[in-house]
Amino acid sequence: MATLKTTNKHHRHLNNPFPSTPRSLPFVQGTLSFDPQTVPPHQIFSLGKDFQLTWTSKNGGSVSISHQSQPTRPIWSTIPGQAFVSAALAETEVEESRGSFVFKDRDVHLVCNHQIVEEIRVINQSDYSLEGKDHEFPSGYVGFDHKIEFKDTQFPVLLITGRIFSAKREKKKILRNTGIHDNSESVEKEPSTSARYWVFFDQKGGHQIGFQVKLGKPNLEIQQRISPRSYGVYRGFSRRLGRIRRLRIRWCGFLSRRRGFITVTSSDEENVVMKGAEFTGLNRVCLTYSSERNERFYGFGEQFSHMDFKGKRVPIFVQEQGIGRGDQPITFAANLISYRAGGDWSTTYAPSPFYMTSKMRSLYLEGYNYSIFDLTRHDRVQIQIHGDSVQGRILHGNSPSEFIEHFTEEIGRPPELPEWIISSAVVGMQGGTDFVRDIWDKLQAYDVPISAFWLQDWVGQRKTVIGSQLWWNWEVDTTRYWGWKQLIKDFSAQHIKVMTYCNPCLAPMDEKTNRSRNLFEEAKELDIFVKDKNGRPYMVPNTAFDVGMLDLTHPLTASWFKQILQEMVDDGVRGWMADFGEGLPVDAALYSGEDPVSAHNRYPELWAQINREFVEEWKSKREGKEREDPEEALVFFMRAGFRNSPKWGMLFWEGDQMVSWQVNDGIKSSVVGLLSSGLSGYAFNHSDIGGYCAVNLPFFKYRRSEELLLRWMELNAFTTVFRTHEGNKPSCNSQFYSNHKTLSHFARFAKVYKAWKFYRTQLVKEASQKGLPVCRHLFLHYPEDEHVHGLSYEQFLVGTEILVVPVLDKGKNNVKAYFPIGESCSWKHIWTGEVYTKQGSEAWIEAPIGYPAIFVKAGSTIGETFLENLRDYNIL
């Protein structure tokens, strides 16, 4: 069955500015039953060495998992009498437009929402050999044809198996609301369609339980009569997925199978016979388990609009964050001009299928399939995965920091950052050699401490219909940056690095006359571009021009691109932005042959891996003192990511915020993105000072004001990296070099940033060892404080010793600070020295421009050293 349709809408320039919520599979609910002849009424099973699984038949049956040290505190449990495994067969359409994607479920053909547990079996190591690469499951498991491997498993393993099914309805009786059909008067009699399932639980390490759900093929008969009454199980879906008078079911074989289809009506025909129907199996897995009404859910990668996701459906798919993301009027304008370009609260460059909760529960999915975490019900969670299997981990921990440590221990942690990039300001600007030297002179006059100049336009600029854009050909433009090597040498003499820009796409260079290499043609000759359905290089629309995207699964791509990076570094460059990575088309063809939908989520990890491998290979080739010289270490930063990106990426930035004060895509969203990503393993993150995206249309103007720029400087002086960006329209924006006030303020907060370098260095080291972020939501250290649970962008911690309460609203000169419950310490205001001793209290703090509300723990060595450094820099 052709269950996926892709639609490209790159060139639609007049669209609905208020797009509807995409139709999707609703919350699936069903009953749980068990076979009393094979399943005990109550039993506790050992699970690995440290965990236990409890089965009870009370109230219809349920499962719970707990650590043996806390047997009464479940880390995962199901709802009594409710199915915890269910599945469906559905058709999906993916609409794509310039890096934005939306998934729409069209027709739902089959739902197996009821579950029977037939056996709970203990698998000991003697039953299963871990030797060899691939393993067929031991004999005796009828219908199991999957290959399965238990890697790093501590035995015993537990297997729960049985059937999931949809139910016929015959006799009239009130049926409980299952959430997927009407409250019809009917009763389950016998399964009409069923499939076997297998759920495996095994201990991984000391703090995690691995789980795997596998499905067999449904036993749907080739010729089966469907009456309107038995068909009623699908009616709820039909209503929710659209106003469908006539539901057509197309049964199509994958690959070269014979095709056939029938039409089913639910109004006039009493009986319909399905003939020649073929399909390969279920393509949705739903995992449902318990939650609590007041349970808060944090994480899900870098999220920009919310910290707590209880009550929401959270899609996990890498894409452009959008322009506005619900803030008006810019979202209206973006959607009108380009299909769904505005995005919404859920769109992000770097999602992760991971969360932790206020009840000290945590879970994450492995793999790369599209998934949705449905948290809309007060008593349960449902994860809907596109595929016929699911694999993940359940974490045990007693605090949020433990969860981050256990999570990053498995997915990976970043290396320590080079000292130079966390020492002083990174000056992001454009304009060519003469302009850069002129600004450097001004910065020296204002005594601004500088770590690096980040020169995004080193490749040169081209004129397009939307203005000036970069030439995507990763070599220096010797016209714009004449004397390139001498410029780098002059900076180096003052211990200032040069950073550049690249991404995994290339543009045709036919119109660029001063190039020395044509990288697009080289990649085309090597045949390392992603392909379209016709086997040609997939030309991906990007604003005003199309580009070829490198196929990172091709064996030649990595070595070829590393050679480009080598030439860049040979010139003296020591860092770069590794941009993009979120736009792999879902209808692309890859060298690996893998599914492009799941490959889409993996692509940014591969992009980070190539850059990281180059950094490590470059370091390994250096000898003696040069190899360990911190002044010569390389670093790259990127915006796109997925679950395992912290392993490969060295540093992240939050992408393209609007130059605004707004919540979903302005300065406030940069704080939310910083903190949510920190709870998801992204230890090193930061935003562009002042934001990036300006708009200068006749009726829609977003320009960076001086006040916004100054407040963003104050905010980012307390993040991992203090880096400016001129934005997409430099002439429309206030810049750090605009006037005396902006230069003085920039110098002041570059010194504030430098004043806590000693502590930042400690936090960077801690992050590389434990995965803990530099900037932290208060929940990380005060999880018992209910007030903290409701905080979003209002304030955050730097490590444990500095409390930041930034001004994020236009025209405001004071903020409300909250001093959390949980430690017997006081907080000292750095500007006045006033000490706030009452835990759980709020206070209004004066915060005029230049004096943001910053506190240190009273009496702490870190705090006192910070204050002393501020005095040394004449800030206090």
List the helices and strands and how they pair.
Blueprint: E1 4-8, E2 32-34, E3 42-47, E4 51-56, E5 62-67, E6 74-77, E7 85-97, E8 100-112, E9 114-123, E10 153-169, E11 188-204, E12 208-215, E13 224-226, H1 235-241, E14 246-251, E15 260-265, E16 272-274, E17 284-290, E18 297-301, E19 313-316, H2 330-337, E20 351-357, E21 362-365, E22 371-374, E23 380-386, E24 389-395, H3 400-411, E25 425-429, H4 433-445, E26 450-455, E27 461-464, E28 467-470, H5 484-493, E29 497-502, E30 505-506, H6 519-526, E31 539-542, E32 545-549, H7 557-570, E33 575-578, H8 596-621, H9 624-628, E34 635-638, H10 645-648, E35 651-653, H11 667-678, E36 685-686, E37 695-696, E38 701-702, H12 706-716, H13 740-755, H14 757-770, E39 775-776, H15 786-789, E40 796-798, E41 802-805, E42 814-819, E43 827-829, E44 835-836, E45 841-846, E46 853-857, H16 861-872
Parallel strand pairs: 1-7, 2-9, 25-26, 26-29, 29-33, 33-34, 34-35, 35-36
Antiparallel strand pairs: 3-4, 4-5, 5-6, 7-8, 7-17, 9-10, 10-11, 11-12, 12-24, 13-16, 14-15, 17-23, 18-20, 19-22, 20-21, 21-24, 22-23, 27-28, 30-32, 31-32, 37-38, 39-40, 40-41, 41-46, 42-45, 43-44, 43-46
Family: Belongs to the glycosyl hydrolase 31 family.
Region (Disordered): 1-21
Keywords: Glycosidase, Hydrolase
Give a structural overview.
This protein has 876 residues and is an alpha+beta fold. The protein has a domain at 29-130 and 155-168 and 191-220. The chain is built from 16 helices and 46 strands. A nine-stranded mixed beta sheet has the order 2-9-10-11-12-24-21-20-18. Strands 1, 7, 8, 17, 19, 22 and 23 form a seven-stranded mixed beta sheet that branches. It has a seven-stranded parallel beta sheet with strand order 25-26-29-33-34-35-36. The protein is globular, with a radius of gyration of 29 Å. The model is unreliable at 130-140, 170-191 and 221-277 (pLDDT under 50).
